Amino acid sequence: MNSILRKLAFVSAIAVGVLLCAISGVFAQSRGSIKLNEDAFAFAARLINDGHVIADRKGAWSGDRPSADQENEFIRLHGFGEYAKWHLGIDERYPENTKRRYKFPYGDFKSVHRCGLLAVKARAHQYGYIEIENAAADLKRAIIVKATD
């Protein structure tokens, strides 16, 4: 009986190990697929420099963020190239001209929102996207510098 229990425990340990390796591999693959959208970063910096900023409070992003209908209308009028400029992340697992490709929105298609950048920074930090987190922090600093000009 003890022999059977030891074999069962051994097989269970192997199965758990294989499962953990598979999960960590999928997690690492998905984390590595999102890259900084350099064009969006430059576009946001220009918007900030030109004064197209909403210096709203922390937590306001849930109310300020464009709805799915607003996103769809923006894409219909301006295309995915313009839509992409409003997202600091590009998920390379998805094809161009799909909404799923573009991550980490920071504005409302008119202005950069401080609360949007705070949300991007927090979420990028949470999931380990250091380059996107740093870009959001740089843009937030640019808003502060512009406000003191």
What can you see in these coordinates?
The chain is 64% helix and 11% strand. The protein is mainly alpha-helical and 149 residues long. It has 2 domains: 1-32; 34-148, no CATH class. The protein has a 3-stranded antiparallel beta sheet with strand order 1-3-4. Strands 2-5 form a two-stranded parallel ribbon.
Provide the residue-averaged pLDDT: 85
Amino-to-carboxy terminus distance:
79 Å
Poorly predicted runs are 8-13, 15-30
Biggest sheet: strand arrangement: 1-3-4
Run of helices and strands: HEHEHHHEEEHH
Shape: globular
Number of helices: 7
Number of domains: 2
Structural class: mainly alpha
**Beta-strand content:** 5-15%
Please tell me how large the radius of gyration is: 21 Å
Relative helix content: 55-70%
- For the secondary structure, the number of strands is 5
Largest sheet: 3 strands, antiparallel
Oligomer: single chain
